[in-house]
Sequence to fold (405 residues):
Amino acid sequence: MALFNYKGRDHIGNEIQGELDAANENAVAQVLSNQHIIATEIVAKKETKVTERKIYSKQKITLDELVMFCRQIHSLIKAGVPTVNAINGLALSSSNPTLKRSLLKLEQTMESGTPLAGALQQQPKIYNNLFVSMVHVGENTGRLDQAFKRLAEYLELERSTRQRIKQATRYPKMVVAAITVAIVIMNMFVIPQFAKLFSRFGSELPLPTRILIATSDFFQHWWWLMLILAVGGIYAFIQYKKTPEGALKWDSLLLKLPVFGPIFEKITLGRFSRTFAMTYSAGVPILQSLSVVARAVANKKVEKAVLGMRSGIERGDSFTRTATSAELFSPLVIQMISVGEQTGSLDDLLNEVGDFYEEEVDYDLSRLSDAIQPLLLIVMGIMVLILALGVFLPMWDMYSLFSNK
Fold:
């Protein structure tokens, strides 16, 4: 694909100019012809301009922008506007260059005869499998407007879920950052001053003081090595987490963490319940729904369990039995799923399960600071004790020495 500048005139003679991504000049002329524009000039943009545009278009598409896109296209399609025209109008009004580029590419792909779901599938970094599946069902059932409405509601819930995760991790991140800064300040600035004071007396220092001074000396002389090891360790961890084995182990560890593990587990199961209820009620086949939802839960351990449920259903087991064997849900939730399966209202009951988990998460988050505070006090107490022993023990020894004299 290349970027072309074009000039032309519409059906009433008004001059129009702009730019398009296309394979060649003929493709640009075809797109303009479909829009009832007569091209008068088509020129490929210079490479420097293309590079500049690519750099600028690295701006990410936020969840808020995707929600707004789904809401707007739902309203336009419901009002009877053709899908291609709706996407073109949204592209022209978009302030995000990445989203604008994406929508223009969708428009061009659809004008070549590809369905909207197929066009979305060509941009997997922006529109995931869940998005594509919902649009595919909407196109096949003639309820594309409802599909985008459901997607907007789902993305709003996803935004709420991410905010919960940030809220759950904000406090411990602040605590770890504060302790790290305190350790660096003590070793780089505070302890060296006491070390100079104690060195003037020439007496043997207590063991805690010697440990503090040795640690401070290491910080001062090898801080660059510690920085390299820290950056290298973080990079290695990120790369390991990208591997299937690393992602599975890390996600399993997250669910086992004290205090935070149960919160992450409830957030993940609430996401599963909401997503499956939405896809199932929209008419997505149950096996396809489980495959889509497995990727949407954003936890490899839960994903593996959901795919195990899918295999069980393929063998002929009921949804309730596979959910029980997955060992993901509490007995109360299993009972709700069983009732939903027997009454044919599985999607409604799973939405209630999602509400149940969200209430549990909100309650746990409200008690999070109370749960962490004792641990924080213990850590801070140990730090103060070590510092006090290292600083005050030699001062007491010197005071005793001077008193004896």
